[in-house]
Structure formats: C-alpha cells, structure tokens
Amino acid sequence: MTPPPSLYRRSSIIEYLSNLPIRPRLPSIRSRTSRKSTASSLNSFAAAFLAANEQSMLPAILRNADVTNKLLEYIVDSPNGRRSLARLARTCKAFKEPALNVLWRELDSFVPLLALFPNALMKRSRRPGLGLSKTPEPADWERLLAYADRVRSITYNEAYNNVAPTIFAVIEELRPKQFILPKLTALTWKAETAAGLERSRLFLNPGLQSLTIEMGNKYTKMGDFLNYIMEKTALTT
Description:
Elements: H1 10-18, H2 32-52, H3 54-57, H4 65-76, H5 81-91, H6 93-105, E1 106-107, H7 111-114, E2 122-123, E3 131-132, H8 142-148, E4 153-157, H9 166-174, E5 186-191, H10 194-198, E6 210-215, H11 222-232
Parallel strand pairs: 1-4, 4-5, 5-6
Antiparallel strand pairs: 2-3
Helix pairs in contact: 1-2, 4-5, 4-6, 5-6
C-alpha cells in the first residue's frame, strides 16, 4: 500500500489535502456555489495549517548554520552557481539571508557594490567606467552599506577601467563611516598608477588579514605605503 504524501513538506500538504477523496456529488443537494465553498474552505484550512506549523516544517538543514553554508558554497561553486544562488535568495525567504551572505562574501570587482547606489545617481559609460552623476545623500548609502557588510574579499583592477576614479574621491569625502567594508579580510589591488594604488587606503581596515598588491609601474613611495599598511592593519599574509 502506498503511504500518503508526507505532511512535513509544504508542497506535499496542499497536494495531499487537494487529493482527499470527496463523496460523490448529489445533484439534488450540491450546487456550483457549494463546490466553490468547499474548495475555498480546503485552501483556508491548508493555509492555516501551514502558518501554524511553519517553524516545525523548516528543513533541518536550516537549523544548522554550518551545514547550510556548506550547501550554499557547493551551489555557488557549481556551473551557473551564482545565478542559481541568486534565484534561491529571491524565491525562498528561509534561504535569503544565508544565500546573500555567500553571494556577496567574495567579489572580483567593485562594480556590483557601487551599483547599489540609486539609479538616479549613476553614470554608466565604457570609459572611465561606472561613476556618479550626483552627490549621494546619507540615505543613498543605506543599501550599499547593508550589502557591504557581507563582503569578506574583494578585488580591484585599475586596468579594467570599469570604475571611474572619481567615485573613490566621493567615497573618501562623503562615506558615512570610516570603512565601508568593515568586515573585509582579504584585498587584492592591481594598480597601474601611483594614484590607483593610493585609492586602496580607503579599504585598509584594522581587520584586514590578507593583502595582494600588483603594481604596473614603479612607485617611488612604496616604502612609506608599506609602513602605512603595517600600522593600519593586522595582516597575516
């Protein structure tokens, strides 16, 4: 005998309730209105049941943060993994926060982060890259800072010309707090000019543990720059 669908899965509950056998309709006492009423009552019962048991029906994996992260890391490392994880974050409330943490933990460019400024402020061009057409107000930083708090590793490559240099001047002058990437632990900075290297100072927070610098041209003040790094960070590599 085939067992009934499990009541511990949300999708199965509605399916199970919908497939419950109904006594044959008697034309003399059943009407179209009554059938609609029955279906409506059934849906209401299912919704009430799900609401009352939502916590108990959460997958066990969500109750263990380490296991959840391992699953999400496996997804993001698979083919088209970032797209799949982004879809999961949009469609499943239970997975939203841990999925976003994994998606934003490691960035290979500043573009996704800076694109979180309101569209009305953005200026997009192939060269010199993503920039700002207006000065951001305090409220304009809120979304960027919320996601920046998830970033643990980021890479900047000046040669890509995908970010306008002027945007770093805006960050330096108007940022609401000293470090917009407060939990950054790894920074890779590839500069072609002395000015490009100097921009990295904005992201040398005290918690930084790993710093990789690639310099396209000779930088005469490299000694002073390295001393600054040692004073401001807790580098281990």
